[in-house]
Amino acid sequence: MRVLLTSRLxxxxxxxxxxxxxxxxxxxxxxxxxxxxxxxLPYFPRLPGFGRWSALSRVxxxxxxxxxxxxxxxxxxxxxxxxxxxxxxxxxxxxNGSERFFSPDLIHAHLAYPDGRAAVEYGARLGLPVVISVxxxxxxxxxxxxxxxxxxxxxxxxxxxxxxxxSRDVRERVLGLGVDKGKVWDIPQGVDCVRxxxxxxxxxxxxxxxxxxxxxxDPRKGVxxxxxxxxxxxxxxxxxxxxxxxxxxxxGMGDGFRQQVARLNMTDCVEFCDAVPWxxxxxxxxxxxxxxxxxxxxxxxxxxxxxxxxxxxxVATRCGGPEELxxxxxxxxxxxxxxxxxxxxxxxVLLRYDEFNPAELRRRAETFDYRQxxxxxxxxxxxxxxxxxxxxx
Length: 393
Hints:
The protein is α/β, with parallel strands linked by helices. The chain is 36% helix and 18% strand. Helix 1 packs across helix 14.
């Protein structure tokens, strides 16, 4: 089986941390079928001094990543979503003609728009089935921002042969866009349980309690709320520290959060760290006593299952995806944007820490292992191809 996978959400030499879970899925899929990745990038001339745009311009036409050849064609994509309703047509031009170097049996797009909308058009031209994976913001933020964009997202998903939803929240949003529920497959994002393991040397709370957040330094990720929650906790206990990992040019350097830490007089207990490559995440996740994800919205929460695979209990917010991952055996849930609720959830985990069994936490994570995810995706591909043979019109 030959699969053309296309997505803007993919790592490159400019931004190696972007869409690592998509690349990881491809790595495990490539053990079961032949996959060619097309990861279109916005066109920008090679001019220095323009931040992320200059970085993108330096990415080659193709790069090798874990033995896979990734192609990075360019398309016209103005900043700030200008002409966004036409973006799929520009994206489509990067797909047209790709069959000359790779003739697929099936097309798989990650993100409904513009990726998925372009993919269904390209698939129709070639008579090939199309699968679209949606990841949250493409069925939440984009449709809610503009009625025309909502129509384009809905059109892509309705025309697709199958849609992959990573959580119940995402599934409900997909169905709300008019997609037949029989076309929606529930396949989560994954974790590599060979890389993420329970360390034998960790002694919880031995030198104070260590909290960890890893992700973008973005207000929507709830980092400011987490800092306020830590301040509340430290009013009556001084044995808690926090490491924040994720500073980057792409995801934010966290200047506002550093100022907040100084204002709250917590510079002695909060550490800011740069984003780390995904290959270093297993070591990072093995360090803390508790992992905290205080997002305002998350369609899934990969970092939660990575922490659980390392035997670490988690605290998250009721923001969409985490509700499926976090229960009394794996951690606690807090209300979105509520520092008091978040502080109470963290403290309850610390007070009842002995009730969290690292082996049970890992067992929960193992149900999301990439090997199972890849097997499920292959089952989907085979089902789609069986219903719609190659070159069917």
